[in-house]
Write a structure and sequence with these properties.
The protein is built from 14 helices and six strands. It has 502 residues and is of the alpha+beta class. Helix 1 (13-62) packs across helix 2 and helix 10 (346-370) runs antiparallel to helix 11 (376-406). The chain starts with 12 loop residues before the first helix and ends with a helix.
Length: 502
Amino acid sequence: VLRSNEVGATLGKDALSTTLKAGAIGMAVIAVIMIGLYLLPGFISVLALIAYVVLMLLCLNGFNASLTLPGLAGIVLSVGMAVDANVIIFTRIKEELGAGASVKSAIDAGFNKALSAILDGNITTLIAAFVLYIMGSGSIKGFALTLGIGIVLSVFTALIITKQLLKAAYTLGLQSPKLYGAKKEAKVHNYVKFSRFAYLISFVAIAAGLIALPVFKGKTGSTLNYSLEFTGGTSMTVNFEERYDLAKAESDILPVIAKAAGISEADIQVQNVKNSNEIVFKSAELSNDQRDAVQTALEDNFKVKEFNMENISSTISTEMQRNAIISVLIATALMLIYIAIRFSDVKFGAAAVIALLHDVLVVFAVYSIGRLSVGNTFIACMLTIVGYSINATIIIFDRIRENMVSMSKESYATIVNTSISQTLTRTIYTSLTTFVMVFFIYIMGVPSIKEFALTLMCGIVCGAYSSVCITGPLWYMFKTGFGKNDKNTTSKKISKKQTKKA
């Protein structure tokens, strides 16, 4: 052993405290939104959400899970899905009340009709989490664990805790339909017709991201802005006469190093060495001239006792990258198979996977064009999108499956347009509540978390857009041979099965 140091966190104590504050504010805003939208059921969902957070913390402690940025992404995603399950149920209850049902029957019907959508959406995401946990390593395994725990708890709180609290409120005398709200019949828009413009917008966004790769390759020598986790670089250990905490080092010393080396502050990681005045600065590999410039700048501006530099390798190995890609591909294939079996139509699975690929490529374009740092945050963001987007798609597909029976005399185009219109509020509300959580993390978080939150917000918006404008119309194209045979034959198939059974 040549040297052994106990280093501090790269995110710092402020990262945890500001993230917790942002999460608390986000939860408070979500509570206001849910109560404003769903009245009494919304208030009950807030109680269930608090129970979910407590259970989540207990489980994380019980499993001794390491909380990393990808792990944080898993928690944020699972909170969004916990809200989503309640939104699905309450939307169904309001639909039943709008159709003239009593409060008691509306509650029962709301939970019964929402059950398949909640289970299918969460099981598909759970499949992805399971594969990532088995095959992934490091931060990917942490993401999968927190996401998996969150999914199980979100289903439990929505179907058990929320249901019992809602029934208890009804039994206690809160039976007025005004306390539960009512949803009017949704206005149907022609999403199938609009989809051609949506496809064009998506094609331009994805193409721009791909074209940027060779352009930046020629300008900077690298297609993407890879971080230290992928490329390795230079580690500088500086021993100061004065002790600087992490916040002070980032505000006072970091700008001096970045200016002297001619690199961005975001590309430099800072760590304190415990019980000493040493600070470790890690950046992309620096040339001899850059090293000399940094050393001179530090000695001119601060009292430096000792200065050491060495090259370091990447922390994300080629094997880890390969395992991450393979695990995502396997998870996607299993999700496709599950959707095809549950919906008795492989076209649903194909449309879902293509929409998933669309969301990943659009966010990839944000990284490519914006030259955002590609590291652990990139992995966390992409994994979150995989989990989030498929859930939104399942909700629409579940409504299409239901309407194919209840609207058996209508064309597929009418069914798709009606299904998207009926689930539009769910898509907007769920995306809004999840966006709020991430937005406050972006506003209040430390710089390294801000970049993660920014791309996650892009992913949430993109997931909502694709679920409304891409998935349903895409299934319609597959089902009808690009509109050539727009005739619903579901009723005939059902009648044959019923006759055979009889």
